[in-house]
Design goal:
2 domains; 6-stranded mixed beta sheet; 391 residues; alpha+beta; 10 helices; elongated
Length: 391
């Protein structure tokens, strides 16, 4: 399967930094110019419904760019031609998503925000360096995969650091699974609670780093915009943002890798994250948990390690149902952290009870063959059937 590989570039020469920044500037200018042109075309079609103009493709946009923009701005010829080409291609893909109503209207790009560009052509990969068109050999801190020849690479900038990413072909690993089925309940107090009793706590360093971030932003409030001190403070803030994001990514990757490597079947809930974020009292804690990112990582890692991922139905009462007798407690509230069954008398942690119910749901579906499967509503009581079978 194809996976993305991303690593940091070791930029020691100011000239190389300048060339990379020039490529980002050209790609950003081409994207914004194409967005301006396409918006004018859509506005013209709206005001003149009788004239049906064909919406331009990425090739049409590039032809107009070569004819109208490049002769006007000579600095287009100082960078690779791939940078504006891929920028217009990404713009066309953004419009396609907008027309399908899977995303909003594309926005104009700003300097120093999500700077990136894509190159293709003669790309050669060595142990600790990679050769790029019009740029030359660039060193990396990490050893690169050998025996590959990527068709294209994407170079991006975060804070004052540069990164390179490309796709590599990875073989599927069939690792031995010591545990067959595990239920994972995602929460706020504990990020993930497994039915085996293992608990993944949330990252406690966020609060300390957030206080430091607030202090840096408060100190930067009165600096003159676009001054040297303003740029220095902005770089410090961007570095701290990147550190917080890296801490979250590292923790989530370690957790999802452990689950996919050591369990044959993983059962999680199909959470309505966008609906949960409407609760303003818990929206920040839910955002820090990154529930959808956990689901996304488990989706491809289960395929990589030959595991299976099951999504329980969104309305499956995993928290309100007793894992011993199956009795549902409709009066359980979010503030009740201890589950007490009024029928059999079982008392335990609320999240552990939900994880065990998800495990029973996974054991009731031994016929699962796909890597990704969502349980229908008709299987909402499958956990009770599994419990009766065990007894």
């Amino acid at each position: 399967m194809l996976l993305g590989f991303k690593t940091q570039l070791k930029i020691t020469s100011p000239q190389t930094r300048e060339v990379l920044a020039q490529h980002c500037g050209v790609a950003r200018h081409a994207y914004n110019w194409g967005l301006w042109l396409t918006k004018n075309i859509l506005e013209h079609n709206k005001n003149n419904p009788e004239e049906k103009l064909k919406f331009p493709t990425a090739i049409d946009l590039h032809k107009c760019l070569v004819a109208l923009v490049k002769p006007k701005y000579e600095w287009y010829y100082s960078v690779s031609k791939c940078a504006p080409q891929y920028a217009l291609r990404y713009l066309r893909e953004a419009w396609d998503k907008c027309f399908k109503k899977t995303s909003g209207v594309p926005k104009f790009k700003k300097k120093y925000k999500h700077d990136s560009f894509t190159l293709d052509g003669a790309i050669h990969v060595d142990h600790f360096k990679i050769k790029l068109p019009r740029i030359g050999w660039v060193k990396t801190y990490e050893r690169l995969p050998q025996g590959i020849k990527p068709k294209s690479v994407t170079i991006s900038r975060k804070a004052d650091k540069w990164y390179i990413s490309f796709k590599i072909d990875i073989e599927v690993n069939e690792t031995p699974k010591p545990i067959n089925v595990v239920g994972v309940d995602l929460g706020i107090l504990a990020l993930a609670t497994c039915s085996t009793g293992k608990v993944f706590e949330g990252i406690r360093a966020f609060k300390q780093l957030e206080r430091k971030l607030a202090s840096l932003q408060w100190k930067n409030r009165h600096k003159q915009k676009k001054s040297n001190n303003w740029y220095k403070a902005k770089t410090k803030i961007a570095r701290l943002h990147q550190r917080i994001a890296n801490l979250r990514k590292d923790y989530l990757h370690k957790m999802t890798t452990y689950l996919a490597k050591n369990h044959s079947i993983i059962v999680i809930e199909d959470l309505n994250v966008s609906g949960m974020l409407k609760n303003h009292k818990l929206s920040k804690a839910i955002s820090d948990g990154a529930f959808y990112e956990i689901r996304r990582q488990l989706t491809y890692k289960c395929e990589l390690y030959s595991s299976k991922l099951i999504l329980a139905d969104r309305f499956y009462p995993s928290s309100k149902k007793c894992n011993c007798c199956g009795e549902i407690n409709p009066h359980l509230t979010l503030s009740d952290r201890i589950f007490e069954c009024l029928k059999c008398g079982w008392i335990g942690d609320r999240d552990l009870n939900a994880a065990k119910n998800l495990e029973q749901l996974g054991r009731a579906m031994p016929e699962v063959t796909s890597v990704y499967k969502k349980t229908p509503k008709s299987l909402a009581e499958a956990g009770n059937k599994a419990k009766r079978t065990e007894n």
